């Protein structure tokens, strides 16, 4: 799905063709939300360039990531992706690209908490009730996610591992379609980012049970939710982060221009307001620097690989 900003006179970015931000999940989900807000905030710092969002979903995010890894390194095809860049190398054998060598790192964007949410008819008013219900229905609970290697898949797997109950996991091409089925009651549970769940929780179209951060959140609709860590799952912590990438070999002067525009976009009050309103925290530290972004992803791969292996949650 591309959304072209109508009527914006394309200026010379390096060239006048649109810049495409590839989102490796369907439109309407949490990754797409970050990308559309960022595309809006990048236009001005990129001299009025036309910035579109291209949803290339599937295979837990690796189809979209691969599309950018193989794209022309001209600065006009970028990837906006999340923690999946650090978990896929462990979770999914033979992904068709190398996270450390097939991409140029352009800087990080935000940190996003996750929420454990349930269908509206789920007979539980809090995490304690939910835990009782899961144990009473242990062989028929189903949990939605956005494919093997996605953030919702990782959190769902770690949650099942923490409570030692295997659920039926239902893959979607993004958590937007999964959310539709959760609201409709076709699936029971999901672990998804606040950028996708906050408005549904506010609108009471789903139930919310806990957050996956070690500290409670301050977002009004989420502030009363306990952490899973405080609800008996000691040490449970999953925070999703997003970064921007270009194909390896993109010229340095173009990378510098995009990184400068990204830093300006992250300071755009409109962008910050939209993201913070959904529980996300915009990056203000050194992770906006490409070298620090690359170091952070390498550290995250080292962090998550043993956790994933210990939980025995391989995918294939
Ligand atoms: C995920 O990894 O769960 C994605 O964030 C889902 C999405 O963006 O649709």
From TrEMBL:
Q: Cite the InterPro entries for this sequence.
A: BUG, Bug_dom1
Q: Which Gene3D superfamilies match?
A: Bordetella uptake gene, domain 1, Periplasmic binding protein-like II
Q: What are the protein's UniProt keywords?
A: Signal
Assigned protein family: Belongs to the UPF0065 (bug) family.
Name this polypeptide is given: Tripartite tricarboxylate transporter substrate binding protein BugD
* Record organism: Limnohabitans radicicola
């Amino acid at each position: 799905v591309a959304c072209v900003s109508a009527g914006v006179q394309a200026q010379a970015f390096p060239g006048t063709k649109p810049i495409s931000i590839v989102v490796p999940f369907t439109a309407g989900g949490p990754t797409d939300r970050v990308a559309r807000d960022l595309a809006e905030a990048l236009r001005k710092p990129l001299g009025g360039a036309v910035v579109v969002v291209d949803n290339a979903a599937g295979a837990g995010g690796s189809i979209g990531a691969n599309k950018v890894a193989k794209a022309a390194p001209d600065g006009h095809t970028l990837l906006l992706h999340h923690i999946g860049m650090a978990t896929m190398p462990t979770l999914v054998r033979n992904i068709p690209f190398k996270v450390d060598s097939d991409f140029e790192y352009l800087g990080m964007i935000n940190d996003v908490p996750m929420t454990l949410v349930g269908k509206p008819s789920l007979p539980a008013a809090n995490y304690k009730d939910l835990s009782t219900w899961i144990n009473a229905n242990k062989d028929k609970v189903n949990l939605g996610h956005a494919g093997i290697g996605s953030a919702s898949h990782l959190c769902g797997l770690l949650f099942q591992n923490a409570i030692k109950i295997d659920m039926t996991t239902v893959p979607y091409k993004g958590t937007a379609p999964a959310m539709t089925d959760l609201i409709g009651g076709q699936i029971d549970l999901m672990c998804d980012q606040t950028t996708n769940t906050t408005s549904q929780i506010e609108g009471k179209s789903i139930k919310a049970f806990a957050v996956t951060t070690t500290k409670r959140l301050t977002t009004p609709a989420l502030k009363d939710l306990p952490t899973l860590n405080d609800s008996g799952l000691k040490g449970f912590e999953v925070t999703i982060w997003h970064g921007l990438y270009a194909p390896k070999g993109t010229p340095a002067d173009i990378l510098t221009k995009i990184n400068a525009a990204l830093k300006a976009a992250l300071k755009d009050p409109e962008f910050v307001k939209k993201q913070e309103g959904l529980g996300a925290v915009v990056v203000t530290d050194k992770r906006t620097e490409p070298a620090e972004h690359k170091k952070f992803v390498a550290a995250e791969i080292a962090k998550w690989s043993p956790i994933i292996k210990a939980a025995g949650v391989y995918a294939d």
